[in-house]
Amino acid sequence: MSVLSRLLMKQGVLASPWWQRVLAVLPICLLLWLGVLWALGEG
To answer: Residues 9-35: pLDDT tens digits?
Structure first.
């Protein structure tokens, strides 16, 4: 845990793109989920 915290402190917020990946993937997953629900509802 200390290694991870040190790595995050060294890189900083701008150099840690994990939250950007999460923000990029979440809408795609939400659209896919809604598409599946719509397809199941239509079927």
So the answer is: 665 555 557 777 788 889 999 999 999
